């Protein structure tokens, strides 16, 4: 069998391994950490609190199901999930609380009741983003933007008429502020820029299609938490013959002329017909391809935001909270200026709280909750993170405690922190940026590194730092694109 080497077992790497194995390759995945998942790992804290370490939102579950179907398996034998009735609970500084119901009509009715925006106005908006999403997804998400055949496909015929409405020449915030007058609804819609680590005051209006995923398709919760996605796919991969080599980081991608021919680790050289890097594109070039010319313009694109994450065991339950909760800042523009212009953290940050024990009660002791508390922050450029961790912790506690009318700090029984330096060290994400480069440019989608390189045959790329971007669905789509780009295996294996 022809051999394929996959570098990194993040969700993009695991999905690529499955697709290559189905295609007929003998696949080996090399992982620097003791286990799989990349950012999608889990851990426990003393007292019986389980946490998903990284991603917390699950949309487009059919992209996971598709991998099992592709392998001739029944997805439900491996992986199950449920559609959330409530996407998010929102809290504003003025005391407004809003329940974002999953059904568009129920959400629009709630917005009318709480914010005074006519529900027909929001319903029309969600119908519009659904239409634009369906017109563009095949071209912009399911195919490489760096190949001529993408633009010659019949899908482009659906995309072209939608282009004038995509907001390519305006920002997310400007488009939302034109569509709605209530600043709270504008802020709610602007926050979707954070789904790929960007700034709504700079990012193109195209990103306003993101709410379609939650309200028209749905947000979901996997049985066992987000980690169950990686867990089930690794099980599938192993059944297909994929070998996972943990604590064996790749030191170099081996090349011969203009061909990738394998990888090298401390244990030796592993010849392969093709190599797929799921590592962040910057360290892939800087560390693993030091002799190859690097695409400097791409590697020097501005980074996305990172995160400060506080994992708290909480000694009581809060019925007013759900799986996903947002506590907004008073001045959203200033918050993003701190992140992207000043490289710092606002004293009034928006705080996200994820509580999986709402759906998996065993994730916390009876009468307790496991809180994943996240604040968007800049990627690491040498800031004093020890100070920022303490300051941001206090600001987050003050905000949540004020909104809930409770001293939350007194309820914390266990704690762990993940900061941009730790994210970078643990996952090789350059600067701890969660999504590679930011999308704070209307051409950002085209400036991401492609899923292949014209410089070296047999070398491909998956994951959040390359096309089509970060987050679980897009990483899965990056693997799908690679699977379609890779030619059928030959029996010739490099010596």
UniProtKB/TrEMBL annotation:
The pathway entry for this protein reads as:
Carotenoid biosynthesis
Determine the domain of life of the protein's source.
Bacteria
Q: Which GO terms describe its biological process?
A: carotenoid biosynthetic process
**Keywords, A to Z?**
Carotenoid biosynthesis, Oxidoreductase
Parts forming coiled coils: none
Which GO MF terms are attached to this record? oxidoreductase activity
Give the Amine oxidase domain ranges.
Answer: 11-481
Report the sequence similarity comment from the record: Belongs to the carotenoid/retinoid oxidoreductase family.
Write the protein's name: Phytoene desaturase
